[in-house]
Amino acid sequence: MGITFLQPWVWLLGIAAAVPIALHFLARQQSRPHVFPSLRFLEPIALSAVRWRTLQDLPLLAVRVAIILAAVAALAAPVIVTPGRATLWANRTARAIVLHDEAAAADDERRGATVSAVFARDRITDAVADAVRWLDAQSPQRHEIVIMSAFAAGAISEADLQSVPGKVGLRLVRSSTAPRPRVREMSRLQLRDSGLMRVTEEVRLDPQATTLREQRADRVEANSITVRARPEEQTRADAALRAVLRRGVRLPPAGLLQPIAVDWPGSADALTAAIDDRLQADFTTWEPERMSDEDLSALSRDAVVQGPPAAEDMGDRRIVWVVVLALLFAESALRGRAR
Predict the structure, then answer these.
(1) Strand, helix or coil for residue 258
(2) Do the strands 195-205 and 210-219 form a parallel or antiparallel pair, or are they unpaired?
(3) What is the CA radius of gyration of the chain?
């Protein structure tokens, strides 16, 4: 239980309460006449150069000061905060829904909000900025931004949410649970009938199958891979190298930057392993297909209840104005008695 004011700056007008106090000090005090049978019964006194003034009619002064303070309190829009009201205000939500997925449906999120709006832009940063501007125009209550997306890896980061004020809540809702296909471009060095080629392929991993599609093949003028062997084994080593190149040798993403020479290990399979070890073309690790739930939780936060809506103060303000009228009647009665 407490009280708050929607316009607390109005209390600066409370300095006006000093006006009736000053008027009571400056009011000319009227002496009451007393009848004496003779002046000889009065003792002569010396007049003082200093004239002391004292406040008169203290109850009337207190009522007048209370009138001014009560009027200022009414203008400051008082709101009595009860537990029931606090719960009601906390449940009033202005929700901006950012759609970053064509398959996302915002109907469920809109049902739980007092007011809501949907924003969809090509760039998620632009949609979030539109949502922030819309929330700024809403009345003080619980503000929240809900981002609905499949959240592929790197889809959103803290930099995309820098424009969101700290009092605005953030919820990241995964709108699709279907795994998205993973695609990577690979290249290999392969010996074909037309010569040594650098073949670029697209590898697509779906939950059901893996698809390999050749994109292009560029001719390589000189072989950058050689095998060192004893003279009596060189012919066999060269033949094994041609067999390995017929199958194709995976290249690292940066390509073959400089020629390499491999010692003859004694077999074609061992030669393949030795070349792969030198090239370090490790394609067994794929980037994660989507952001983890831990990443989404780290970017989320609860909304802060910013205060009661402006319309909530009307009942409490009227109560204070009734108090002001009652004080005016009391002031009128006290002033009549003082006369």
Answers:
(1) coil
(2) antiparallel
(3) 43
- What are the Cα distances from residue 305, in Å, to 11, 93, 142? 24, 9, 5
| Two tokens, residue 325 | 């009228």
The Cα–Cα gap between 31 and 55 comes to 15
Q: Could you please report the per-residue DSSP string of 75-106?
A: HT-EEEE-HHHHHHHHT-EEEEEEE--TT---
Give strand pairing partners of 301. Answer: 170
Query: What is the tens place of the pLDDT at every residue in 136-153?
Result: 888 767 899 999 887 877
CA max distance for the chain: 159
User: How would you class 275 by CB atoms within 10 Å of its CB: exposed for 0-12, middle for 13-18, buried for 19 or more?
Assistant: buried
Specify the pairing of strand 182-192 against strand 249-251.
Answer: antiparallel
Q: Provide the pairing of β-strand 225-228 with 260-263.
A: parallel
Give, in order, the Cα–Cα distances in Å from 320 to each of 219, 284, 317.
90, 74, 5
The ranges of the chain with pLDDT < 70 are: 1, 27-32, 39-42, 46-56, 86, 88-90, 102-104, 140, 176-182, 206-208, 253-257, 280-289, 305-315, 338-339
The secondary structure of residue 193, as a DSSP letter, is T
